[in-house]
Amino acid sequence: MPKLVFPVVADGLLVDVLIGLDSALILAQVAAGQPIAVPVRACGEIDMGSNVSAISAAILQRLGIPIQYQTTTQTASGSLAVNVARVSLGVCDFGNPTGPELVEPTLSVMELPTPLGKVEVLIGLDFLLGCKFMLDGPARLFSLES
Amino acid sequence: MNEDRHEVIAQLHEAARDPYHEQKQKGRELVEAMFHQVAEREREHRDRESVAAEQVHGETPVQALPPHEPLAIHYTELPSARADSPLASEWNLYRREAGCLLAEGHENRWVLIKGEEIIGIWDTEEDARGAALQKYLMQPCLIHQVRSREPSVRLSARFWGCQS
Q1: For residue range B127-140, what is the model confidence (pLDDT) as tens digits?
Q2: Separation of alpha carbons B58 and B163, rounded Å
Q3: A52, A56, A83: which to substitute to probe chain B, counting the most B Cβ within 10 Å?
Q4: Which residue of B lies nearest to A66 if distances are taken between CA atoms?
Q5: What interface predicted TM-score (ipTM) does this complex get?
Q6: In B, which residues are within 8 Å of A24 by CB distance?
Q7: Strands A40-46 and A14-21
Q8: For chain A, does the N or the C end have fewer beta carbons within 10 angstroms?
């Protein structure tokens, strides 16, 4: 079973992430004879409090991924509309070139309303429920396994 | 001489550490014992309740619990889009038209909206997205399922820029 192991750091549960166009968009671009945008690397953070993953607007713009969906969420001040886009998302370890990569070829993600410093991707339960997530608190390690 | 001094210091540290560890261990045992007691009491309570429930329901048919409903809002309560959203006009048009679409029997179907126009309605998301990719490749447009109750996603404080 491919397994990725990361240290728990002061900033949280950080992982290396690759973001690209989703499979349907890639196929449509190929059919239209358009060049395919190369996936971009980013810093992701595990966020079990969200049931949907989120990506910074800057990454979506860099890849030219259009917003095509809206959804709603509840906040203390009422419900809000949030932008949603379709992407492909891969979690990997850039420090380990032979390590595996856990990939979701099509994932609906929220557009982050505000930048979160170096973190540009929040990995929510939608991604985590597709793999085995283990947190070893005393060893300050966590792992993701497909 | 130096070694003696080190040994004395080590002994003093150990002597000081022992009561601390002992105290900590005692505290832990106390908490664990309390938790164990409460958990036992809770289990007994549940056992008693289930026996009582069995006695009651043994004579009357058991009613199934209502199905779990995810968090959702009525279509009339849909919030307006953020002014800077690339889908502001599309989303606001959907909010205005949702009632009509539902009345026309389009519930659960997928609508494609571009600007101020409803482009089409399809039975599946794949069909609606296929049409969107064909007509508006790499352009924003709204693909949305027509629903009387709109599911709401759960987002953490981190999403809104708060430090965890």
Answers
A1: 999 999 999 999 99
A2: 53
A3: A83
A4: B140
A5: 0.87
A6: 129-130, 133
A7: antiparallel
A8: N
Q: Which residues pair with A55 in a beta bridge?
A: A111, A121
Helices (DSSP H) in B104-148: which residue ranges? 125-135
Residues of A with a Cβ under 8 Å from any B Cβ are 12, 24-25, 28-29, 32, 34, 45, 47-52, 54, 64, 66-75, 78-83, 110, 112-116, 122
User: What does the alpha-carbon distance between residue A92 and residue A98 come to, in Å, rounded to a whole number?
Assistant: 10
- Say if A73 falls within a structural domain: yes
Which member of B73, B143, B154 has the closest CB to residue A51? B154
Q: Give the model confidence (pLDDT) of A102-132 as tens digits.
A: 999 999 999 998 889 999 999 999 999 999 9
One-letter amino acid for residue A23 of the chain: S
- For residues B52, B57, B63, B64, the Cα torsion angle rounded to the nearest 10 degrees is 60
On chain B, the residues whose CB falls within 8 A of the CB of A54 are: 155, 159
A144 within a domain of the structure (yes/no): no
User: How many structural domains compose chain A?
Assistant: 1
What is the distance between the alpha carbons of residues B103 and B106, in angstroms, rounded to a whole number?
7
pLDDT confidence band for B19 (50 / 70 / 90): confident
- B159 vs A47: CB contact, 8 Å cut-off? yes
| Structural domain span for residue A87 | 3-139
Q: Residue A80 belongs to a domain with what CATH number?
A: 2.40.70.10
B73 neighbourhood in chain A, CB within 8 Å: 72, 74, 79
- Across the interface, whether the CB atoms of A72 and B87 are under 8 A apart is answered no
Q: Which pTM value belongs to this model?
A: 0.80
Instruction: Of A137, A77, A15, A75, give the one whose Cα is nearest residue B156.
Output: A75
Give yes or no for a contact between B114 and B120, defined as CB atoms under 8 angstroms apart. no
A130: its two tokens: 């597709």
Smallest Cβ–Cβ distance between B140 and the set A24, A32, A67 belongs to A67
